[in-house]
Design goal:
- With 337 residues, the chain is mostly helical.
- The protein has one domain.
- The chain has helices spanning 3-23, 26-29, 43-47, 53-71, 79-105, 112-120, 133-150, 155-181, 185-209, 211-218, 223-238, 244-257, 262-273, 275-289, 291-296, 300-336; strands at residues 37-38, 41-42.
- It has a two-stranded antiparallel sheet.
- Helix 5 (79-105) runs parallel beside helix 14 and helix 10 packs across helix 12.
- The protein is globular and about 55 Å long.
């Protein structure tokens, strides 16, 4: 998987994430004008079961970090700077959206612990869809240790253990999360890291085996689109997150191996470049600030396209602010020398 292909899949992942958060709750879907149904279920709600964007992001991150691990011989000296950049973007987004969100929801009170929890992403109560940020940072920092451990074992055993861990932890989260885990961050966050690790490891093993490249060399036919469609349908029918890492891995391999139009890749690469910002931005509009306006657009396709465009435009703004402060800091550092 090349760097461009990684960005393509990040673009796909953020599109899946936005679709999920728009249409995975029936009370929101009921606000839309749905024309297609699967049985008694609106098609967009039915299809939301095949998104699972977190597994996509983790697999792609695991792939990229394992590539760095191999290339630098386990000395990834830039992981702290990547984490710092991620947090700086998160802080810019919080600064832009928290005040409008508080005003819209009539929440004018906060305290020191809430500020610390949200700015560290330890507990993202202001933006629940950012729950993934802190475990992702932890996995990024722990990656060298994880890869040193996996280097000692054969791929098939690593994948088997990872699949079993992901399935078991997924079952625990679905059955006991609300009762025992969600309200105790000191317990939930370590457990969540363990739960997310299998997807991360799946990505690392994709890189280690070169499996994507091998499939591309042996089978690059339009029939792969049929295989991908079948995979999506199976996921929609089973509607279980336990298959998350396996489903996302299969989707990535099939999508990257299937023939695509060049313009599609260009669009997805551009979205991939903004995927992290769009992930941390889109739900402010559809949940926290302009929920009623977004769903007043009525038609799912219109709602979806509008939110993608608005999230992308806001990402441009976030990057511009980030670049502005980066230039100022750089100039000050130069002046102090």
């Amino acid at each position: 998987m090349t760097k461009q292909e990684t960005q393509i899949m990040k673009g796909v992942a953020v599109l899946l994430m936005i679709f999920l958060h728009l249409f995975n709750q029936m009370h929101n879907v009921e606000l839309c004008e749905s024309f297609i149904y699967i049985g008694n279920m609106p098609f967009v709600y039915w299809l939301s079961a095949a998104t699972n964007p977190v597994s996509f992001f983790l697999i792609l991150s695991g792939y990229g970090m394992h590539f760095i691990h191999v290339r630098t011989e386990s000395r990834d000296t830039h992981r702290w700077s990547r984490v710092a950049k991620l947090y700086l973007h998160w802080w810019v987004i919080l600064a832009l959206f928290t005040v409008p969100s508080f005003v819209y929801n009539g929440n004018y009170y906060t305290n020191y612990s809430q500020v610390v929890n949200n700015y560290t992403a330890f507990k993202t109560s202001w933006y629940a869809e950012g729950w993934f940020l802190f475990p992702f940072v932890c996995l990024s920092l722990l990656a060298p240790l994880l890869f040193k451990l996996t280097d000692k074992f054969k791929v098939r055993w690593i994948l088997l253990v990872s699949f079993l861990v992901g399935t078991c932890t997924g079952f625990i989260v679905s059955r006991y999360g609300a009762k025992y885990l969600y309200n105790t961050p000191w317990l939930y966050d370590p457990f969540l890291i363990v739960h997310l690790t299998p997807s991360f490891i799946f990505g690392a093993m994709l890189q280690r085996t070169g499996f994507v490249y091998k499939v591309q060399q042996k089978c690059r036919t339009r029939w792969l689109w049929l295989a991908l469609t079948t995979t999506v349908i199976i996921m929609c029918i089973t509607r279980t997150a336990a298959w998350g890492p396996l489903y996302a891995t299969t989707f990535i391999v099939l999508f990257l191996s299937a023939p695509r139009q060049q313009w599609v890749d260009k669009v997805l690469v551009h979205l991939g470049d903004h995927s992290m910002n769009m992930w941390l931005i889109h739900a402010w509009f559809c949940y926290y600030i302009f929920h009623d306006f977004v769903y007043s657009l009525r038609y799912p396709l219109v709602i979806y396209v509008v939110l993608v465009i608005v999230s992308l435009l806001c990402s441009y703004l976030v990057n511009a602010i980030f670049s502005f402060f980066t230039v100022i800091c750089h100039r000050k550092c130069q002046n102090t020398k």
